[in-house]
Amino acid sequence: MAIASGLKFVRSFDTIRADDVASVGGKNASLGELYSQLRPEGIPVPDGFAVTADAYRYVLTANDAWEPLHALLDDIDPADMQDFEKRAERAHALVAGLEIPRDLQAEVIAAYRSLIDEYGPDLSVAVRSSATAEDLPSASFAGQHESFLNVRGEEQVVQAYSRCLASLFMGRAIHYRIDQGFDHFRVGLSVGVVKMVRSDLAAAGVAFTLDTESGFRDVVFINASYGLAENVVQGNVDPDEFYVFKPAFEAGYRQVLSRRIGSKTVKLVYAQGSFEPGTSTRNIPAEPSEQRVACISDVDVLNIAEYAIAVEKHYSALNGRAVPMDLEWAKDGLDGKIYLVQARPETVASQKPTERASFDEYRFDGPLPAPVVTGRAVGRKVAVGRARVVRGVDELHLVQPGDVLVAATTSPDWEPAMKIASAIVAERGGRTCHAAIVARELGIPAVVGAAGAMAKLGQSSVTVSCAQGETGAVYSGQLAYRLETFDASALPAPPVEIMMTIGSPDAAFEARAIPNSGVGLARMEFIISNDIKAHPMALAHPERVTDPAVRSELETLCAGYRSMPDFFIQRLSEGVATIAAAFYPKPVVVRMSDFKTNEYAALLGGKDFEPLEDNPMLGFRGASRYTHPAYADGFELECAAMKRVRGDMGLTNVVLMIPFCRRIEEAKRVLEKMAELGLRRGEAGLEIYVMCEIPNNVIQIDAFAQLFDGFSIGSNDLTQLTLGVDRDSEIVSFDYDERDPGVLEMIRLTIEGAKRNRRHVGICGQAPSDYPEVAVALVGMGIESMSLNPDSVLRTRVRLSSANLK
Predict the structure, then answer these.
(1) pTM
(2) Is 434 a catalytic residue?
(3) CA 455 to chain CA centroid, nearest Å
(4) Following DSSP, what letter does each residue of 408-420 receive, concatenated?
(5) Sheet of strand 240-245, all strands in order from the earlier edge strand to the far edge
(6) Rounded distance, CA 5 to CA 100, Å?
(7) Known catalytic residue: 692?
(8) What are the tens digits of pLDDT across the range 362-393?
(9) Residue 6: what pLDDT?
(10) Which entry of 434, 466, 535, 760 is annotated as an active-site residue?
(11) Calpha distance 238→265 (Å, rounded)
């Protein structure tokens, strides 16, 4: 942008760098850095200019405002809420009423006219506050100061500028500065004027170069919704979520790692009116067909990821250390391009250690009741308190210390009340909305996107749990729980590889920080039952589903996908890939499906494809299904998904494993079929293990070793079949004991046979997780790896370190 020379208070973005924070504030310094340094490298950034912090000081000086502001703020006490609010209102009104000097107005108008020359007379701009203590690694000031969208005309630009200056003295901003230890009069305010990207005609959102919950740094996490990004930031919608795995992306595998389609019930668009909030923009309903599908394409997701990775690398080089970034992006509905419109260092998740040997775990005493409401979990804690339903700012004074704040959504004005809450429950919003961001900063749990919470939660005691993975839950009453802390930081390295058993992809990023040697068992069936929900054969052959209502459910489930088989392949591959990415490049052993017929029948459409069996535990399960006409097409979908994970997505750390393989001939048929489907053992480094869970696997271990690369002992079924006990039968459950000498002897023979054939041998059954003495015995037998539940890893390491293993 060509700005006239000699301007004292205005700087164009092409003259601004990241170290200009003192002059133009954090937000404008970042935008200037993006525009001046990365736009020439091909990253689209809208043009604009900054009105400097010196201009803010000039306005206060020209109006003799410093002394009355000192009188209002020097001894302000946030603990005296009534007096605090009165003083803040007077300070805000004082600055809002100041006259903008004519020479400053002239400079702002001249710069605005230069933007019109660049973009044309239909230009609309965003006028954004940018404090000199904003968007720092230690304090984000996110949402504390006002910004205005869809501003048009010289008069509105000057008015919006004045309103931005006044927002420095709103109560929430004053309170935040006190909390962060900033001097009110050392913080200056710059204002940015930026060309609006027409995302009102397309979509917008935010992107982080790490996972905002776990701090996992190898992913780009993207939120997206229709219309302007304010709906995502303020938590007014449940947005779409996408992950991109950085190492694979940079190696040339341009694939989305995983996705979750949000409801996106409304979209924020332009309106005819003033620049005031609520008049220049308005929310309109999104069409039902729009809500069911992603609001941006995979190409858009990958472009956003490319830009985010480039920005992170650039800022990391500037700072001489890794700097995870928090970015805002917008897709222009006119030219179809993705633009970056904001960038700042991420200030919460980036502070988490990448590997932790000390963990706090929240555990409930006894079984949990059905939750009253559920939503997206923020944090990993549990909190108990009285639910306090708040419908607006005028009810915030009702919130008492320790209350669970329940609302439709939250905004920066709510932060004084949020600071005294024990937890937050919001009906709307995703994991990057305002309520989620503040909850992370405060270190309290939050459940967002909890539909119906305000109606269902009265003013009674509740328990908020975010300790059970991605889904957060609110229970009625005060449930008993305990906090357990494990510290293995001073322990020696374990004598065997300690791997983990992972079912849910949602838990993978968090679990990967526990010291481990990879994943010894990833359960495919968990992903099928929770993320896919439909029987593979019903998706392969929907014409064979007899119930029209079930066929309709299948069609709804697969809306937005090219076909029902594509739905299965994409969802399964993304679930497995998420686990593989979390632990990359460590091995991740993925077991092919091991449902029993009654479990398969419970899936959507499953009753049309499954026989009724008296004892499904010993029936049509595992390897016997894979080449059988009754399931062969379903197994083909499983293999297609695994081929995509290893091939298209680049996650070659995935090891495949065959469960419940009864006979050598059966093993050969399965391996031949997998090879036909593109999963040939040895090609592209593919290893295939077999579960050792049937006595015949032990008896013929030398023969099985010629076909497979390794063995994983399934102690659950091996115990059942060695002792002749149906582990699903309550009446003989007392005879089911994985510590039985006969079971331990079968395990010993397996380890001995695997080593004799130079094959990997580990255990993925429940025994070492439940019984530390079994873990000690396994080490003595020479086991190479143990796959434990994440919550058992540190406990087992402590036990092994104290045991006499000589």
Answers:
(1) 0.86
(2) yes
(3) 27
(4) S---GGGHHHHTT
(5) 258-260, 240-245, 219-226, 203-208, 325-331, 338-345
(6) 21
(7) no
(8) 889 888 999 999 998 988 899 999 999 999 98
(9) 72
(10) 434
(11) 8
